[in-house]
Amino acid sequence: MTAQYSLDDLLYLMARLRDPESGCPWDIKQDYASIAPSTLEEAYEVVDAIEKQDFVHLKEELGDLLFQVVFYSQLGKEEDRFEFEGVVSDLAAKLIRRHPHVFPEGTLQSRVDNRNTLPGDVKARWEAIKQQEREAKGVQGLLADIPLNLPALSRAAKLQKRAASVGFDWDDVYGPIAKVREELLEVEAELDSGDRQALEEELGDLLFAAVNIARYMKIDPEQALRLANQKFEYRFHFIEKSVGQPLEETSIHEMNRLWDLAKIS
Fold first, then answer.
1. What is the Cα 125 distance to its own chain's centre?
2. HSE of 93 in the Cβ direction (CA atoms, 13 Å)?
3. Whose C-alpha in 24, 91, 124, 255 is 20 to 30 A from the C-alpha of 164?
4. How far is 42 from 68, CA to CA, in rounded Å?
5. Residues 209-260: tens digit of each pLDDT
6. Terminus-to-terminus CA distance in the chain, angstroms?
């Protein structure tokens, strides 16, 4: 029978891996910065498993992501900065504070009847509480605490959403649609200029405007682009399987014909 381990066992395992005398040489060598790329990779693998509805592997991927938190917590403990228990406690306290409609007295045990509470009311209250927290931390500016290392599409949507929370927004979705048309014309105007920097800027403006359409329609632009990537991969793979010869020897007319077939297959 496979042994069943607990969270305490995992924390002990992490401490053993980092033991200077008997631990793993690779784990001992790591620091916050060196494992940060792995954290991003593990988070994306969780999302990938969810999108594929691969729930067999989702359990494993969630474990890999949890291990990242445990690793950072061990580093914090070694440096007397924080421990895993503190991470958990602070998280619970924050969630209780941000859900006064669930924990009305600010305690884990307090309850309230929420059957008539609207999701929109909850969202507005959540944003107000988060703004109070930002102000308490001394964050200057509405956009100041949006992480710079977010994927660019996600960060664009977050910037736009935060600005919209104070009324800086379009009247309807046709505003950002018109902006996309405007930015596309500006891209076309730069194509023959030879100014690569100006073209890059205009392309960025075009992408930012497209994100605004997604954000306005409450569609995650990162998710939308991932789905588009998957669609492209499927159709291109269909061409590869269908031609029966190297793609370099296949005409663009034939590849386009197969592409159209892939769209209806």
1. 23
2. 7
3. 91
4. 8
5. 999 999 999 999 999 999 999 999 999 999 999 998 999 999 999 999 999 9
6. 46
pLDDT at 191: 93
Pair (215, 230) in one structural domain? no
Count Cβ atoms below 10 Å from residue 107 Cβ, excluding itself: 9
- Residue 107 DSSP code: S
Distance from C-alpha of 10 to C-alpha of 70, rounded to nearest angstrom: 8
Kindly write down the DSSP assignment for every residue of 244-257, as one continuous string: SS-GGGS-HHHHHH
CATH number at residue 26: 1.10.287.1080
Q: Are residues 241 and 214 in the same domain?
A: no
Tokens 């008997």 sit at which residue? 22
Calculate ∠ Cα 63-68-2, nearest 5°.
Answer: 30
| Number of domains comprising the chain | 3
Residue 209 domain-assigned (yes or no): yes
Question: Does residue 249 lie in a domain region?
Answer: yes
Alpha helices in the chain (DSSP H): 7-17, 25-29, 32-51, 55-78, 84-98, 119-136, 152-164, 174-190, 196-216, 221-243, 252-264
Distances (CA, A) of 100 to 103, 106, 133: 5, 7, 14
pLDDT, position 135:
81
Residue 236 lies in a domain: yes
Contact, 129 vs 103, CB < 8 A? no
- pLDDT value, residue 140: 79
CA neighbor of 154 nearest in space, from 44, 36, 35 = 44
Compute φ and ψ for 148, nearest 5 degrees.
Answer: -70, -25
